[in-house]
Amino acid sequence: MSAQRHHGLTEQAADTAIDPACRMLRLPTIRGQFPDLAEAAKRDQMSYKGFLAELLLAECDDRARRRSERRIKAAAFPREKSLRAFDFDANPNVDAATINTLATCEWVRKGQPLCLIGDSGTGKSHLLIALGTEAAMTGYRVRYTLATKLVNELVEAADERLLTKTIARYGRVDLLCIDE
After folding, report:
1. pLDDT in tens, 83-133
2. Which of left, alpha, beta for 71 (phi over 0: left; psi -120 to 50: alpha)?
3. Interval 68-87: pLDDT, tens
4. What domains does the chain contain, in order, with CATH numbers?
5. How far apart are CA 31 and CA 21, in angstroms?
6. Which of 26, 53, 174, 176 could join 140 in a cystine, given CB atoms 3.0 to 4.6 angstroms apart?
7. DSSP single-letter state for residue 16
8. CA 12 to chain CA mean position, Å
9. What predicted TM-score, i.e. pTM, was given to this entire model?
10. HEC string of 78-131?
11. Which helix (H) or strand (E) holds 47?
């Protein structure tokens, strides 16, 4: 089934055609932002290419944002934590420069492990969740779990002869965050 193209559409016909076309092509951001961006393009006398680029970049940016949100949700963090919210002054033994270097996630790319060790109340869980969130926003698949939960899950999987499948599921993530 092919749709017949109409050249020289009126403004009203074009407006009517854009919504269903965006739905069919699964372009929700363009669909939602088109009226405002079209008005801005007209006001700023933007070229057709410039206008098209603005629409496509808005769609790409929104898709990247939604992918990050899905990865963060899939990580199953118990709460939201960020590096910006970490109080380095209250934790003088935590080096901000080192944490900022870790936030680049180069160590995740290289497959290097990271173990956060310290006394109770020093921010290990906060940093674990914040660094995991950074990794998810960078594009890595992340999973958060408690050590006790992981051990129990592996024991149950072994009892049910599903250990290989369970280990494989954890092996599909780029970063496994295990908290105490």
Report:
1. 999 999 988 889 999 999 999 999 999 999 999 988 888 899 999 999 999
2. alpha
3. 999 999 999 999 999 999 99
4. 11-75 (no CATH), 96-179 (3.40.50.300)
5. 9
6. 174
7. H
8. 38
9. 0.77
10. CCCCCCCCCCCCCCCCCCHHHHHHHCCCHHHHCCCCCCCCCCCCCCHHHHHHHH
11. none
Residue corresponding to tokens 């993530």: 173
The C-alpha atoms of residue 117 and residue 100 are separated, in whole angstroms, by 17
Burial class (CB in 10 A: 0-12, 13-18, 19+), 73: exposed
The phi, psi pair for 179, rounded to 5°, reads -105, 160
Contact 108, 67 (CB under 8 A): no
